[in-house]
Design a protein that fits this description.
This protein is α/β, with parallel strands linked by helices and 648 residues long. It has 17 helices and 31 strands. It has three domains: 286 residues, Glycosidases (TIM Barrel, Alpha-Beta Barrel), CATH 3.20.20; 195 residues, Rossmann fold; 54 residues, Golgi alpha-mannosidase II (Immunoglobulin-like), CATH 2.60.40.1180. The longest helix is centred in the middle third of the chain and has 29 residues. 49% of the residues are buried. Bound molecules: alpha-D-galactopyranose. Alpha-D-galactopyranose (GLA) binds next to loops.
C-alpha cells in the first residue's frame, strides 16, 4: 500500500530563508508528503547565463528531506529569465496578429526557437546533475502546463517541416486543405505560413493542422528534457502537468504515453454545483488519458478559485469533497497551487494552503484534517474505477469545432460532452472518457457527443462495437467531417449514418425547439430522414414539425440511438434512462446531490459517496467505512456536505 500524495507547489524563492523552517514544520503538521519545487525559479537558479545559484535550493531540498517531505523537482522552463529574452529577441513569441510579445509575465518564449530549446536543455541538465542523487528527489516535473503557441518565423519553419512529414508532397496538402477554394493553392513549401491574422475566414484545415503541429512540437520539447533527466535518473518518474482548455494545443491523450504518470491541474470555474460536475469530468478525463491507470491531481486551489473575473470561494468542506472526488476517480493524491499564498506578484490573490492570514485559519485546519484522512484511503490504490459507460472524447474534434466557418458559432464540443457526462454523474453511474479509436468492447453503452470530426478507422471501430451487440448513443453534429476536416458526402452524420440508420438533409440551428414527448431541445435541430431507424420522438412545431428528432436503429446485434438536438437536462436524463434500459448498465437509486464512485480490485469493492447537497441523504450501502474506521449499516446516513468510503 502506498501513501497518497498530499502537498503542492512550493515556491520558497518568494520568501526569506527564515520562513522555510516554518514551512517545513507546518507541512509536517498538515501531513504534507510531496511538494513541487522550483517551477518558476529559473531567474533564481540561473541569474546570469551559465551562472547557477543552487545554494538556496540545496538548503530547501535538505530541509524538506529532513522533514520527511519528498520533492517533485521542476524544470523551470515555462518562464525564462529577463536576460534570456534580452539576448534572444527572436525567441520571444509572436501572436497571430504579428505582435512580438515582451518579457513581463510568464510563458513568454517560442518553443520552436533554437535558443530557447538550448537554454531549456541547459537548465534541465544543470538541475539533473546537481540533484540526481538527492534523497528528497521523488519525481521530475518538466516545465509547467505546456500550452503556448507562437506564429513567428521559427514556428513557420517548424510548421512546414511538420507538414512535409504529414503530407509528403504538396499535392496531398493542397487536396487536404481544399486550397482550390479561394485561390490558396501552394506551389512551394515556403509559401505556407502559420494561420496568422488574415482578411476573413481562415482555412479550417490549416488551422487544425497548426494545432496538431503545436501538440507534436511541444511534445518534442518535453521529450528533449525527459531524455536528459532520464539519463541522470533512470528510475525517477517524469511527468508534466496537463492543463485543460479550449486554447491548449496539446493532445493529452497522445502525450499520455510519454509521461510516467499522467498529472493534471484543475480549477473548476463555477460557483454552484457546476464545480462538482467539472471536477468529476476533469478527473474522469485524466483517468481516460492515463488509460484507466492511476494519475495525479498536481494542482487545484486550496481556497478561492479565480476564474479570471472574480473569485469563487470554496465553502468549508468543499476542498475536501473535491479532493475526494479526484481520488475516488483515480488520482494518487491531491496537490495544490500553492503552498503559501504569495504576498506580491500577479497571483497574490490566488489562494494558498497557508493563506495570507496564516496557519491559524479555517483553511489550514481543513487541509490538516484532510491530510490526516488520506492515509485511511491508501487501500484504494491499485483498484479500478468501475465504468460500464464510455463517452468518447477527442481533442482534435474539439479543435476542429473551434473553426470560424461553422453553421453556428454556438456549437460547443466541450459543452456537448459535459452535458452527456452530467447525466451519468448525476445518476452515480461510472463513466470512462475514452479516445474514439479505443477498444470499446468492455462497455455496455458508448456515447458519442458532438464528435464533428472522426477518422474512418474510429468510425469503423464504433460501428463494429454496435454490430457485436453494443449500445450506442450519438448526438447531433457528429461524424460530419473526416480527418482533413472535409465534409463526408451523402448525408449527415456521414461517418455514422449507416449505423444509425438515418440520413440528415439539412441543419436548422434554433434557439429552442419542442418535442412531441414534451421534452425540449435547444441550439440545434436537423432534418432527419429515417433510413432503417425508428423515430422515438419527433419535433413539435416549427419547420421540422412532425419530423424525427430522436431515433433508434437495430444494427447487427446492437442498438444505435441518435438525438438531433441539444436536449435540455430533464429530457436528456430521460433519454439516457431509456437508452440504458436494454444495455445492461446497472442503475441505482441515488439521492439528488450525492456523488457516487465504485472501485473494485478482485473480490474487494469500495463505494465512495460524497454528499454535495444541503440535507442529509440516505444511501443503500453497508460495510466498513474507511474514514471513520467503523462498520456501517444500510441505509447509510450521509450528513449534508459529508463523505464516506465504504468497503463491501
Ligand atoms: C496554473 C499554474 C500555476 C498557477 C495556477 C493558478 O495551474 O500551473 O502556476 O498559475 O494555475 O492560477
Amino acid at each position: 500500500m502506498t501513501d497518497l500524495y498530499f502537498g503542492g507547489d512550493y515556491n520558497p524563492e518568494q520568501w526569506p530563508p527564515e520562513v522555510w523552517k516554518d514551512d517545513v514544520a507546518l507541512m509536517r503538521q498538515a501531513g504534507v508528503n510531496l511538494v513541487t519545487l522550483g517551477v518558476f525559479a529559473w531567474s533564481s537558479l540561473e541569474p546570469e547565463p551559465g551562472r547557477y545559484e543552487f545554494g538556496w535550493l540545496d538548503q530547501v531540498m535538505d530541509l524538506l528531506h529532513d522533514g520527511g517531505v519528498q520533492v517533485d523537482l521542476a524544470t523551470p522552463t515555462a518562464s525564462p529569465p529577463p536576460w534570456f529574452s534580452l539576448r534572444h529577441p527572436d525567441a520571444l513569441p509572436v501572436n497571430a496578429s504579428g505582435v512580438r510579445l515582451t518579457h513581463g509575465s510568464r510563458d513568454t518564449y517560442c518553443a520552436c526557437a533554437p535558443a530557447y530549446r538550448e537554454a531549456a536543455a541547459g537548465i534541465a541538465t544543470a538541475l539533473a546533475e546537481r540533484y540526481a542523487k538527492h534523497p528528497a528527489l521523488a519525481m521530475w516535473h518538466v516545465h509547467n502546463e505546456y500550452g503556448t503557441s507562437c506564429h513567428c518565423d521559427h514556428a513557420a519553419a517548424a510548421f512546414r517541416r511538420w507538414l512535409r512529414g504529414r503530407y509528403g508532397d504538396l499535392d496531398r496538402l493542397n487536396a487536404a486543405w481544399t486550397t482550390a477554394f479561394w485561390s490558396q493553392g501552394y506551389a512551394d513549401w515556403e509559401e505556407i505560413q502559420p494561420p496568422r491574422a488574415t482578411q476573413y475566414l481562415v482555412n479550417p484545415t490549416q488551422a487544425l493542422d497548426f494545432r496538431r503541429f503545436w501538440s507534436d512540437e511541444l511534445l518534442d520539447a518535453f521529450r528533449e528534457q525527459k531524455a536528459i533527466l532520464r539519463s541522470f535518473t533512470p528510475d525517477v518518474p517524469i511527468t508534466t502537468n496537463f492543463v485543460f482548455g479550449g486554447w491548449v494545443p496539446v493532445n493529452q491523450a497522445r502525450w499520455a504515453a510519454e509521461v510516467d504518470l499522467v498529472a493534471i491541474d484543475h480549477y473548476p470555474g463555477s460557483a454552484d454545483l457546476g464545480a462538482e460536475e467539472q471536477t468529476a469530468f476533469g478527473a474522469d478525463l485524466a483517468r481516460g488519458w492515463a488509460g484507466g491507470r492511476s494519475w495525479l491531481l498536481m494542482e487545484q486551489a486550496a481556497g478561492a478559485v479565480n476564474d479570471g473575473h472574480r473569485m469563487h470561494a470554496k465553502e468549508p468542506g468543499r476542498m475536501t469533497r473535491h479532493s475526494l472526488s479526484h481520488i475516488a476517480r483515480g488520482s494518487r493524491g491531491a496537490l495544490f497551487f500553492q503552498w503559501r499564498a504569495s504576498r506580491g506578484g500577479a497571483e497574490m490573490f490566488h489562494s494558498g494552503m497557508v493563506p495570507h492570514v496564516g496557519a491559524d485559519s479555517r483553511r489550514f485546519r481543513e487541509l490538516a484534517e484532510f491530510g490526516a484522512m488520506l492515509p485511511r484511503l491508501a487501500e484504494l490504490e491499485g483498484s479500478e474505477v468501475e465504468a460500464d459507460v464510455a463517452i468518447l472524447w477527442d481533442a482534435e474534434a474539439w479543435w476542429a469545432l473551434q473553426a470560424t466557418h461553422l453553421p453556428s458559432s454556438d456549437l460547443d464540443y466541450l459543452a456537448a460532452v459535459q452535458a452527456a457526462h452530467r447525466q451519468f454523474w448525476a445518476a452515480g453511474i461510472g463513466v470512462d472518457l475514452v479516445d474514439p479509436g479505443a477498444d470499446l468492447s468492455s462497455y455496455k453503452l458508448v456515447v458519442v457527443p458532438g464528435l464533428y470530426l472522426v477518422s474512418d478507422q474510429a468510425a469503423a471501430s464504433i460501428a463494429r462495437y454496435v454490430e457485436g451487440g453494443g449500445h450506442l448513443l450519438v448526438t447531433y453534429f457528429s461524424g460530419i467531417v473526416n480527418e482533413d476536416a472535409q465534409i463526408r458526402l451523402g448525408g449527415y452524420p456521414g461517418a455514422f449514418s449507416e449505423v444509425l440508420g438515418v440520413r440528415v438533409e439539412e441543419f436548422h440551428p434554433v434557439a429552442a425547439v419542442g418535442l412531441a414527448s414534451g421534452g425540449r431541445g435547444r441550439l440545434w435541430s436537423e432534418h432527419v430522414n429515417l433510413a432503417g431507424a425508428d423515430a422515438v420522438d419527433r419535433y413539435a412545431g416549427g419547420v421540422l414539425d412532425g419530423m424525427p428528432a430522436i431515433t433508434r436503429n437495430a444494427y447487427g446485434e446492437g442498438v444505435a440511438w441518435y438525438v438531433s438536438t441539444q436536449l435540455e437536462d430533464e429530457a436528456y436524463g430521460a433519454l439516457v434512462g431509456q437508452v440504458m434500459q436494454g444495455s445492461g448498465v446497472e442503475r441505482i437509486e441515488l439521492p439528488a446531490g450525492v456523488e457516487m464512485v465504485r472501485r473494485r480490485a478482485g473480490e474487494s469493492a469500495w463505494t465512495v459517496l460524497i454528499n454535495h447537497g444541503e440535507v442529509e441523504a440516505a444511501v443503500l450501502v453497508s460495510g466498513f467505512e474507511l474514514l471513520s474506521g467503523t462498520a456501517v449499516e444500510s441505509p447509510l446516513k450521509l450528513a449534508a456536505g459529508g463523505q464516506a468510503v465504504v468497503r463491501a
